[in-house]
């Protein structure tokens, strides 16, 4: 990727770290994306690219705070994308499989990490994330989730995501193929989306209008997403802190302590800046 305004090198990439260099009790951010259609002009990995960029930039911000430096795990590129099944290229593992993967990832990370935060770029993953995180907290794990949030975004593959991808991966955006799709508010679209999927509403797969998208707008949107994730993580860390914990962002894991991150404001948790956070697709 060649961002228009490159992100600073992200320290703490788990995949590039030798095991003796992994700090005990680290906060680990796990980007969760999807492989699904994003109209004729955006790549299938759009949600994964955005989730990874948000997680890395959030980790860079948090690395300057006191405490153990955060790590960013490799992104999970498959999610629950049943609503996009009518388009070639979409690969969905469904809600049940995603739930199992999230739970096992967190259980494994908890053997050495202090806290796990899933950063999702696909709104269709949210119902499963909520369920998996609730399950993990009942087991005593310090785990939370954060969405890539931006107010006033369009639903899917419109101006919001197109702008962000122009900033992050301009070479993968085909603006000459961009078309407007169904631009109705998500609240109006949701009943049909749940019942019939995206293709029934938009043959192009676009729910919004990419017209006017720019890399500069994408940079501002990405900054907003990162700030929201950092605030959510910081608020959760404050709630989890104990008087015996050392000073810093994240307290060491305690099996008996269940930490609760505050819920995001209504309407803010969106699909990589989109408004389809509640779109689940068919369960399987």
Compute the separation of the termini in Å: 34 Å
If strands are numbered along the chain, what order do they take across the biggest sheet? 2-1-3-4
What fraction of the residues are assigned to beta strands by DSSP? 5-15%
Q: Any low-confidence stretches, pLDDT <50, length ≥5?
A: 1-10, 238-284
Describe the model.
This protein starts with 26 loop residues before the first strand and ends in a 44-residue tail after the last helix. It is globular and about 50 Å long. The protein is built from six helices and four strands, in the order E-H-E-H-E-H-E-H-H-H. Helices cover 33% and strands 7% of the residues. With 284 residues, it is α/β, with parallel strands linked by helices. A four-stranded parallel sheet has the order 2-1-3-4, sandwiched between helices.
Sum up the structure in keywords.
284 residues; alpha/beta; 4-stranded parallel beta sheet; globular; disordered C terminus
Question: How is this structure best summarized?
Answer:
With 284 residues, this protein is of the alpha/beta class. It is 33% helix and 7% strand.
List the helices and strands and how they pair.
Elements: E1 27-32, H1 46-63, E2 71-72, H2 94-109, E3 115-120, H3 126-138, E4 143-147, H4 159-168, H5 186-196, H6 215-240
Parallel strand pairs: 1-2, 1-3, 3-4
């Amino acid at each position: 990727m060649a961002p228009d305004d490159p992100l600073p090198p992200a320290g703490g990439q788990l995949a590039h770290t030798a095991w003796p260099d992994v700090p005990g009790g680290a906060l680990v951010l796990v980007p969760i994306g999807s492989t699904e259609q994003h109209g004729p002009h955006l790549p299938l990995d759009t949600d994964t690219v955005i989730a990874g960029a948000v997680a890395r930039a959030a980790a860079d911000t948090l690395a300057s705070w006191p405490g153990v430096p955060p790590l960013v795990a490799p992104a999970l590129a498959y999610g629950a994308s049943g609503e996009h099944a009518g388009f070639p290229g979409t690969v969905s593992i469904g809600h049940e499989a995603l739930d199992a993967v999230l739970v096992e990832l967190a259980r494994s990370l908890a053997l050495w990490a202090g806290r796990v935060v899933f950063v999702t770029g696909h709104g269709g993953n949210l119902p499963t994330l909520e369920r998996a995180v609730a399950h993990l907290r009942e087991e005593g794990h310090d785990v939370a989730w954060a969405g890539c949030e931006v107010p006033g975004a369009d639903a899917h593959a419109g101006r919001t995501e197109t702008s962000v991808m122009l900033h992050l991966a301009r070479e993968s955006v085909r603006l000459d193929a961009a078309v407007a799709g169904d631009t109705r508010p998500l609240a109006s679209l949701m009943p049909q989306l749940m019942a019939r999927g995206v293709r029934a509403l938009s043959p192009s797969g676009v729910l919004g209008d990419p017209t006017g998208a720019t890399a500069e707008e994408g940079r501002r949107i990405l900054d907003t997403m990162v700030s929201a994730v950092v605030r959510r993580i910081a608020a959760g860390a404050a709630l989890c802190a104990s008087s015996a914990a050392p000073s810093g962002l994240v307290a060491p894991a305690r099996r008996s302590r269940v930490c609760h991150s505050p819920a995001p404001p209504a309407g803010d948790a969106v699909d990589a800046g989109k408004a389809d956070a509640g779109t689940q697709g068919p369960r399987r």
